[in-house]
Amino acid sequence: MYRLPVATTQLAMQEMKSGNPVLRNRGITRLIGLGGVLAMTGHGAQALLKYLLGFGDDEEEAIRKGQPVYNRDANLFFTHDPEEGTVSVFDITYVNGFSPVVDMFGRSIHHAINGRWEKVPGTILSAIAKNFVSPQIAVEALAQASSNTNDYGAALWLEDDSFTTKASKFLKHVIGNAYKLKTPTNFYKAFAAYANNGVYDKDAALKLAGKLASEFKPLRVKTDPVEEHAARSFRVLKREMDAARRSLGDFNSFESLSQDDVDEIYDRYENSSIAINERLNKFARGFQKLGLTYKQLQKIAYEEADISKNRFEQAVKYGRVERFVPSDDALEMYKNRGEDNGPARVQYIKQAYKKRPRYTYLKKR
Hints:
With about 375 residues, the chain is mostly helical. It has a domain of about 140 residues. It has 15 helices and five strands. Helix 11 crosses helix 13. The protein starts with a helix and ends with a strand. The model has no long low-confidence stretch (mean pLDDT about 80).
């Protein structure tokens, strides 16, 4: 996929530099044609359709957040049915043979146009890693073996097995899983899941047939209620919130912490918290444009994703995030944990949060 566009570009450049007017015009035409094909078969056509259908950036980013990690930057198209209250996601990645080349640039351009320049490097690097260091090339097998799990989450070896046994099971899993084809593997997993221990089940058989057929569909479409899309996106945000909160565990270190150390830990958390709440604000706006009310979204965030009503209200209703202030119990724990500089550490933490205003107002992005 990479070879053809590169070779075409090289040939066109040679023609343009040949000095022959006929070849020069041919080279220009070749580049224009390649650019048009890559643009319109990539993100160009779907970007134009989204604009014509009024599906904006807020709505798109809100829906994308709830997609599987590997699919969030894929070439997706969306349609909204207000009467049914559903959003359909069309994955057109496999329709375009040049998607490994153009998707990363199309998605990066979309980020840049909407002011998210910081997302561009990560989008490109992630796409390159996906194409060249994918689970199809032993990475998933190595990751599983390193954590002592097989495809189904069971242990490959027991803790009390000999080193020789552990090593042989490790190598056997990696060698056996490194380059296995995805379609037969998914077929087998689907068969194992739906065969119901050898007892014939018509519904299970139909599900199995659908699973197998979906592996060969170039255009993949999934339709869900807007509420379900919102729940998935909010759950992803909650995981990000929890991960950011866990970073505060560095305050609990047995090692001595200086004021600079404490400032770095606190600022890292606060910056992450602000960014996450900006996304929460943006996604809520997107889902409101798709027909959900503030009350519905607050309920979904609280009941489906365990996002507190206060946090949701601060981020979505007031467009702000409240600074983090450790509880008295937490400060006492930090004081006792840092034997070398426990009392000083507590003072450093207090100075860190006092530098910040109580509320930071979110940017709309």
